[in-house]
Structures are given as C-alpha cells and as structure tokens.
Design brief:
The protein contains 13 helices and 12 strands. It is an alpha/beta fold. The chain has 2 domains: 139 residues, Aspartate Aminotransferase, domain 1 (Alpha-Beta Complex); 237 residues, Aspartate Aminotransferase, domain 2, CATH 3.40.640. The strands form 3 sheets. The chain has a 7-stranded mixed beta sheet with strand order 2-8-7-6-5-3-4, sandwiched between helices. Strands 9-10-12 form a 3-stranded antiparallel beta sheet. Helix 4 links the parallel strand 3 and strand 4. The relative contact order is 0.16.
Length: 388
C-alpha cells in the first residue's frame, strides 16, 4: 500500500537534487569558510552562491541574508534582535493572535524583560484588519510582526498593507514567511518588509537550516556572540552542507514555483470540495480565496481530529490536526479559537497540506477514506449519539 503524505506544512521531503548538492560538502569540500586556504575558500564560495540563490528567490540583496538554524531562530533573531537594538526608542511590540509559537513565545519572553505586547485579533477567516494594527501602534512601538501565510488554516495576510502602515509610523515590520517562501511568489520589496523568516525544510530542503532577511539599514542586536560570521550578526562556523542545501532548494523553487502553484491549488480545491460535499457537518477553516495553495483545514462536527488523524495513519495517510510544533499540547488550536470557532469544533479539525508529490489518485483515496472513518467514529461517539 502506497503511503500518502499530506503534512507538508510540518515538513517536506528533501529533494534528491538538494541531497546531491549537499554531499560533497560533508567529505571532499569540508573546509571552514573562515579559513584562508583554498579548501576554506571553496566552502566560502559555496556559502556565497547559496546566499545569492536565496536572495534571488525573494528579490533581496545577498548581503541582506543571514543564515540561521531554522525558522524559529530566524523569528527569534528578528524580534529579540530588533527589540534589544531599539530599547532606547520604545518597548512595545504588535503581533496578531494567530502567530506561530516561534513568535508568540519569543514575545512572552520579552514581556518578562519589560516589553509590552499587543495581540491584534483576526476575523472568522483568520484575516487581520490593517486598521486594527494601525490603532494598536503607539509612540512606544518598535516592531510589528504579522505572519505571511498561517501554518494551520492557510490564510494569507495583507502584508503589504500592514507593512505600509508600520513604515508610515516609523516602525519596523517582520513577517514569518516560513509557509510562503518557495510556495508562492515572494518579493520583499513588494511586501515592504524589513525582516522575513525562512525555513529550508518547508521548501524541500534539509532540516536545521533557515535564513533571516534583514533589510539594509535595519538594526538588530546579535543573539549569538563569538566570531564575526554573517557580518557579525550570528557567530559560529557555518553549516556549509545545509546552507548549500537551502540554496539548491531555493533555486529549484524559483524555477518551478509558477507551475506548482497552479497544479497544487487545483488539487487543493478538489479536496476541499470533496470533503465538504461528502461529510455532513464539515466546514472549511481559513479564507476561502486568500489561502496557501496547498492548505486544507476542515473542522468536522462530533469527532475528535486526533482520532481521525490516527485512523488515517492506519490507512497509510499522514495528516495532522494543526501545527507540528505544538501537536503534543492538549486542547484546541489557539489559531482556530482566535477565529471564534467553538472549542468543540476546533478539536475536530484536520489539516491536510499537499506537496509536489501529491497526485489525483491520492486525493481520490483520501476522499474515499475520510468520510468512512468519520462515519465509524460518529457511530461510537456519545456526543454524536446525543445530537442524534
């Protein structure tokens, strides 16, 4: 039985061309980029080429790319780094109520250090109102952070509008673009952002590597001190194989993104329509139009999402109930609750995220299996019997 993987928002399989590009830098080209001999210079050139590839993917300058250990560190570096560097200007940060934990927990840690955080609400489709952000900004605000595409419900936020508001008030703007870079066209100039976080393993690259875009002139304090790597913004010997992998993944994404968006969005729409038609009491979460091309998030009445996901796994279908970074936590998704969804329905949510390898037959198989599992679980559910 072929296993069907529909959890690409959690992680993607590493592209074979990415693995091939990385392999030489584990053995033959193993030099330290800080070394001045030819072996070190070879590694330094590989890092420079990767930096250039990522810059071309998002329309930035290569020297505006800082390599990190992943999206979480990139978010931490952006938020803490900017907050620390601008203490003299203010101590206020504005974020939305549906940010990833990499952002919310970072802000919680800053609150313990005397910073103030305002959480702007979203509507029932997970969309933030730019005017709400505008009203939240004060004379003490140093940073606004709004994620580009939500990792759970797929809503794509009006980043360019919010960034313009922040810029007009002299406030720096950060976006977590982990779910969008490599999946939809992203231009830092069109978005108008000052800081943007990227994670390699979300775009068919290796785990443990990411990048932060830092617009020229944006001041951030380093979180890791030591040598002068990354222009003094992040100390430590570069992870050359992983950096090369991220660079290759960015190159592949740049060449294939246009065709992928159309193909995957078509499969996504078929899956959404099929689930809503075949399962009574199912509803789509997130914006119906302004959403990631690979994201399907549905809530189903009278079942627990975890029970459905576990049953699907036994059928060879991998899905999730929300963010993989918080899947061990109990209770309903903070993102779904922020949209006003009742806790009971939020706990009945499923997230199915498609990828390059998803096929028509995969979608048909899922549409055959999910309704059957829901019917079986409802038949044994006291809640469903009570409704009946």
């Amino acid at each position: 039985m072929k296993r069907i993987y529909l959890d690409h928002a959690a992680t993607t399989p590493t592209h074979p061309a990415v693995v091939k590009a990385m392999l030489p830098y584990f053995m033959d080209s193993f030099g330290n980029p800080s070394s001045v001999h030819s072996t070190g210079l070879e590694a330094r050139e590989a890092v420079a080429q990767a930096r250039d590839s990522i810059a071309r993917l998002i329309g930035s300058r290569p020297d505006e790319i800082v390599f990190t250990s992943g999206g979480t560190e990139a978010d931490n570096m952006a938020i803490k780094g900017l907050a620390y560097a601008n203490r003299g200007k203010g101590n206020h940060i504005v974020i939305t109520s549906i940010e990833h934990h990499a952002v919310t927990e970072t802000c919680t840690s800053l609150k313990d250090q005397g910073f103030e955080v305002t959480y702007v609400p979203v509507d029932s489709e997970g969309m933030v109102d730019p005017d709400d952000v505008k009203r939240a900004i004060t004379s003490k605000t140093v940073l606004v952070s709004v994620m580009h595409g939500n990792n759970e419900i797929g809503t794509i936020e009006p980043i360019s509008e919010v960034a313009r508001i922040a810029r007009d008030r002299g406030v720096s703007f950060h976006t977590d673009a982990v779910q969008t870079v490599g999946h939809i066209p992203v231009s830092v100039d069109e978005l108008g952002v000052d800081l943007l976080a990227i994670s390699a393993h979300k775009l068919y690259g290796p785990k443990g590597i990411g990048a932060l875009y830092v617009r020229a002139g944006t001041r951030i304090a380093p979180l890791i001190h030591g040598g002068g790597q990354e222009h003094g913004r992040r100390a430590g010997t570069e992870n050359v194989p992983a950096i090369v992998g991220l660079g290759k993944a960015a190159e592949i994404a740049r060449n294939e993104i246009a065709n992928e968006v159309t193909a995957i969005a078509s499969l996504r729409d078929r899956l959404i329509q099929g689930l809503l038609e075949r399962i009574n009491g199912a509803r789509l979460n997130g914006h119906p139009l302004h959403r990631l091309p690979n994201n399907v998030n549905v809530s189903i009445e009278s079942v627990e999402g975890e029970a459905v996901a576990s049953s699907l796994d036994l059928e060879g279908i991998a899905v999730s109930t929300g963010s993989a970074c918080s899947s061990g936590e109990r209770g309903a998704s903070h993102v779904l609750l922020a949209t006003g969804l009742p806790a009971e329905l939020a706990r009945g949510s499923l997230r199915l995220t498609l990828g390059r390898d998803t096929t028509d037959r995969d979608i048909e198989r899922v549409l055959e299996v999910v309704p059957r599992i829901v019917s079986r679980l409802r038949a044994s559910s006291p809640l469903a019997r009570g409704r009946g």
